[in-house]
Write a structure and sequence with these properties.
Elements lengths: L1 H5 L1 E3 L2 E3 L10 H9 L18 H23 L2 H15 L4 H15 L35 H16 L2 H11 L3
Antiparallel strand pairs: 1-2
Helix pairs in contact: 3-4, 4-5, 4-6, 5-7, 6-7
Length: 178
């Protein structure tokens, strides 16, 4: 978490401040040398996480961060983005395979599932080609670099505006935009 808090977005990705360092309290450093390598006591200020409520909370938070990171990295590829979108569409919105098929055709035409896709004439950006692109900030401010943010925004937009991906696809077929 400390890593993510110190990284700052830029036009080239993430920049890391060179002055950031982590200072451990003296007691913690002393325990670090005395503890066995497998002990978690040193890392968490002397209390054991083995049987505490904090351990389950901590491990569930780590699992959540890990899953989100894996999802973002997977979505940076075309196949990965399709898998993530399908999971969100079916699990969170309750759509079926037919609706996913329409979404797949729509976003293949719009961006080829490329999260870096940008239309320089209109300013549309991302997998769903949001116009203006800054609209994706309703999901998260990392829309320039996070394909999952773009996917979530695109599915939300379709759900609100067209009800289903197949209706959005029908609009695209007749007007070449949605």
């Amino acid at each position: 978490m400390l890593f993510l808090a110190t990284a700052q977005p830029s036009a080239y990705g993430l920049e890391f401040p060179m002055t950031t360092h982590l200072a451990l309290p003296d007691q913690l450093e002393e325990r670090a040398f005395a503890a066995t390598p497998n002990s978690t006591d040193v890392l968490y200020g002397g209390f054991s996480l083995k049987a505490s409520a904090k351990s389950s909370l901590f491990s569930s938070e780590l699992a959540l961060v890990s899953n989100v990171s894996k999802q973002v990295e997977m979505a940076r590829t075309q196949m990965g983005a399709k898998k993530v979108a399908k999971a969100i569409l079916i699990d969170e919105y309750g759509y079926d395979e037919k609706e996913y098929s329409c979404l797949n055709r729509l976003w293949m035409k719009e961006s080829h599932w490329n999260y870096k896709a940008h239309n320089y004439r209109s300013g549309a950006h991302g997998i769903a080609q949001a116009l203006p692109a800054v609209k994706m900030e309703v999901i998260a401010t990392d829309w320039r670099t996070n394909p999952v943010t773009q996917i979530r925004w695109g599915i939300r937009y379709i759900d609100i505006r067209y009800d289903t991906p197949c209706k959005a696809w029908a609009k695209w077929k007749s007007h070449r935009f949605y």
